[in-house]
Specification:
With 330 residues, the protein is an alpha/beta fold. It has 13 helices and 12 strands.
Length: 330
């Protein structure tokens, strides 16, 4: 029998050791290294399964051209970059890999929180360019973390892992998540908050761990950020669209937020002339010392990267072997 065809749209380049080891007996695997949907034209139409990462989106422009596809695996947790509804209309399952980077993202969120709250980034930046005295007073007032309130938006796998880490630091951990059943707070020893506004007003640090949906798009915006405690910190390792990054910038400029760390942005990579980037790169702007930007890297470890490739490939193998896919999201 002829082999099936599995296409890796973006992000992963040869050598494809993991994918070929798992799929090589039944499928030819091809990495397209695409940076836009236009890069897929003429190369993806006859794919039997697709492995999608996060550099591009799959919209009707691509999905309507698929002839044989049985599965689109979003090799990551978030799946807002694929038109799931249209894929379902065409009989294509869409799945994600929800468990590959739980520890890494949680570690990154806590690392960013510590870097902000302990003034590490702020002092390093300023001292490096000779701004201010060589003394701790540059970050006054800085308070002990034990007993401070860490607010989490979304307690799925990653939010839960982050909560346990913050709890281990002695912080009071609270969360807002209208979609989890009662009792999550009891099992984790943390507190449930019923309204987002209440979580924002109580938290010294707010950390986002929810998916990007119509409900959560710009959940943290000018209005909601204004409800955070003056001098609070904001961390986003979830999806770029959950936080309006320009609202964060305005809150730093207005001295309402003391600092923020964003691992994800709505457009990646951002344009150089984006006001956020211009301010972040300007030593005279408060964001230069008080805003941390990372290139959507919180998921990354060598082990985590292997997990997403292996688990995505295994799901393709199931479907191409006639079995049901796992973690279907449509």
């Amino acid at each position: 029998m002829p082999k099936s065809k599995v296409v890796i749209t973006d992000f992963i380049n040869p050598p494809l050791h993991h994918e070929e080891k798992i799929l090589g007996d039944i499928a030819d695997v091809q990495a397209l290294n695409a940076y836009s949907e236009d890069d897929l034209i003429g190369k993806i139409e006859n794919a039997d399964a697709i492995m999608l990462y996060h550099f591009i989106s799959l919209t009707e422009k691509t999905i309507n051209r698929l002839e044989n596809c049985k599965l689109i695996v979003r090799c990551g947790v978030g799946f807002d970059n694929v038109d799931r509804a249209l894929a379902r209309e065409k009989g294509i399952n869409v799945a994600n890999v929800p468990d590959y980077g739980t520890e890494e993202v949680a570690d990154s969120a806590i690392g960013m929180m510590l870097t902000l709250t302990r003034g590490v980034h702020y002092m390093n930046n300023r001292l490096q360019r000779g701004a201010g005295p060589w003394i701790y007073e540059q970050v006054k007032p800085t308070h002990r973390l034990r007993g401070r309130t860490f607010g989490i938006i979304g307690v799925g796998r990653i939010g839960t892992a982050t909560a346990l880490r913050a709890k281990a630091l002695g912080m009071r951990v609270i969360y807002y998540d209208p979609h989890v059943p009662d009792g999550r707070d009891k099992s984790l020893g943390i507190e449930r908050i019923e309204e987002l506004d209440d979580l924002l007003s109580q938290s010294d640090v707010v950390s986002a761990h929810c998916p990007r949906t119509d409900e959560t798009q710009h959940l943290l915006n000018d209005e909601t950020i204004a409800k955070m405690k003056p001098g609070a910190f904001l961390v986003n390792t979830a999806r770029g669209g959950v936080v309006d990054a320009h609202a964060v910038l305005r809150a730093i400029e207005g001295d309402h937020l003391r600092g923020a760390a964003l691992d994800v942005l709505e457009t990646e990579p951002p344009q150089d002339d984006d006001p956020l980037m211009v301010a972040w790169r300007d030593p005279s702007h408060p964001a230069y010392d008080r805003l941390i930007l990372n290139p959507h890297a919180a998921f990354y470890s060598e082990e985590g990267l292997d997990d997403m490739r292996i688990k995505g490939s295994q799901n393709c193998l199931r479907v191409l072997s006639g079995q049901k896919p796992r973690n279907v999201v449509n």
